């Protein structure tokens, strides 16, 4: 599931593949931008902001959001109906697949679409004091809801949300006011994403062995890694919630 660390890693991959190279092919398979051709222009930079990714080419910026199923791939992968954009430069092919958002923006104003976001957990604008203030501004708000709000901190998705609730000892439905040390929670959030920014296989437990990387996410019915209690889950809302009934009060 793409979250801030995945997008940061993807941006680094695309930067290595495209930055400083002139596009020889630009095939956009979204009707609104199908006539846009950036061939002949150099890719100046690739950057991420929370879960958003920008490829700056000439005076334009290719803005994408992976949503639930999107990805960018480098190499001679098969081109099928899921491909939304094909970029080629110096023998390198890049495909944007199942992108939830794909649009071409004016480069000078491309950051307007992310101006509403809170501090980027993996960005130069990271500010734990601001993030803490954002998190605690509504004390009665459910913790999971606050963590998933990109206006609080940019980059958290449902995996990290559930894992953070576990390590904090609170259920996803607990109010923000139940967090004893909001500063510590914010620091843990940053640490989790920072530790995973260079890898695709996300790990929050510190144990990178297959099947042992996560505390609760996706582990419904399995024993809690701390106490053995079966992990509970609720899939009736917008996001699936996972928790240990014993460890999370």
Question: Any chance you could write out the topology, listing elements then pairs?
Answer:
Elements (H helix, E strand, L loop, with lengths): L3 H15 L6 E4 L14 E7 L2 E6 L2 E6 L5 E4 L8 E7 L2 E6 L3 E6 L21 H9 L6 H6 L9 H11 L13 H14 L36 E3 L6 E3 L6
Antiparallel strand pairs: 1-6, 2-3, 3-4, 4-8, 5-7, 6-7, 9-10
CATH topology of the largest domain: Helicase, Ruva Protein, domain 3
Number of helices: 5
What's the architecture of the largest domain in CATH terms?
Answer: Orthogonal Bundle
Compressed to H and E, one letter per element, the order equals HEEEEEEEEHHHHEE
Number of strands: 10
The biggest beta sheet reads: 4 strands, antiparallel
Globular, elongated, flat, extended or rod-shaped: what is the shape?
A: elongated
Structural class: alpha+beta
Structure description:
This protein is of the alpha+beta class. It folds into 2 domains: 4-114, N-terminal domain of MutM-like DNA repair proteins (Alpha-Beta Barrel), CATH 3.20.190.10; 128-243, Helicase, Ruva Protein, domain 3 (Orthogonal Bundle), CATH 1.10.8. It contains 5 helices and 10 strands, in the order αββββββββααααββ. Strand 6 and strand 7 (92-97) form a beta hairpin. It is elongated, with a radius of gyration of 20 Å. InterPro entries: DNA_glyclase_Znf_dom_DNA_BS (IPR015887), Endonuc_Nei2 (IPR054878), FPG_cat (IPR012319), FPG_N (IPR035937), H2TH_FPG (IPR015886), Nei2_N (IPR044090), Ribosomal_uS13-like_H2TH (IPR010979), Znf_DNA_glyclase/AP_lyase (IPR000214). Residues 2-96 form the Formamidopyrimidine-DNA glycosylase catalytic domain.
